[in-house]
Amino acid sequence: MGWIGDTLDSVKSIQIRQLLTQAVSLGMIVTSALIIWKGLMCVTGSESPVVVVLSGSMEPGFKRGDILFLHMSKDPIRAGEIVVFNIDGREIPIVHRVIKVHERQDTGEVDVLTKGDNNYGDDRLLYAQGQLYLQRHHIMGRAVGFLPYVGWVTIIMTEKPIIKYILIGALGLLVITSKD
Amino acid sequence: MHSFGYRLNGLLTFSVTILAIMCAIASLSDNLNSRSPSAEIQVMNINWFQKQPQANDEVSLTMNISADLQSLFTWNTKQLFIFVAAEYDTPKNSLNQVSLWDAIIPAKVHAKFWIHTSNKYRFVDQGKYLRGKKFNLTLHWHVMPKTGKMFADKIVLTGYSFPEEYR
Known about the structure:
By secondary structure, chain A is of the alpha+beta class.
């Protein structure tokens, strides 16, 4: 158990200047992560440039735990695109495919109907009461790329928050007890 | 500097970086594929063509769909999602796309096929504009990779039209 003794010794021997340096470098890491995230939001034009697939409604293409990269451009929404949308009043975004498009002559606005590949029926059951179609403002982005399995980290940390605390605690301990 | 924690941290960071680079290269290799798909759709029969009580036109039709999409598969392809959509315009809407049938092709051997089917999803217009209208049938495909960028494209087949009267 010399490892625990070493850790306790180094925690006791911390000086103020060293502590401040550690705090500043930790702050730099957090803010550069934030800069990257906000930068991605600007480049892709979407509020959340990366989403995790939470349900099995798009199997076998997308499984629970996959990560999707989103992009939102001014291009019109067309049938076949995989879109991520929010229903009014629900906070969890849904990733499904567009199967019907009606674009108005005069205003250029679109009515869009979606369906999950693995679902039997279309998404009218998921929409708000009385809503038959989605409009452009409901749609957060189009899926353009995908990475398998990486999203499981987020799912585990959301469903068992104790693991999140353990991980952050361990990382914090690592930074504080480093001899640099 | 040489503690177990540091070594584990270094190992994990390195392996995640290498995996990310491998995924990116796999995705880039999809661009090397040259594609030459072909498809043909015949409308065998308009089963019925009616006006719904809420005043929207609805039609049911039976189609023969044949296609050869084998050249779209690469080693990085997980599946091909294909669907047939009818495209037309009306005085109210500049573009309407209605998906009639879709399928998932999991492997290259299944990508050359022929199917006789009626429309899987209801073909309902927003309005009563379908009589005598010309429409296109498009076969869209969506290449879903094992990792990386997704591609989508389509073949447009023209020359179809609805009957002049309800039946």
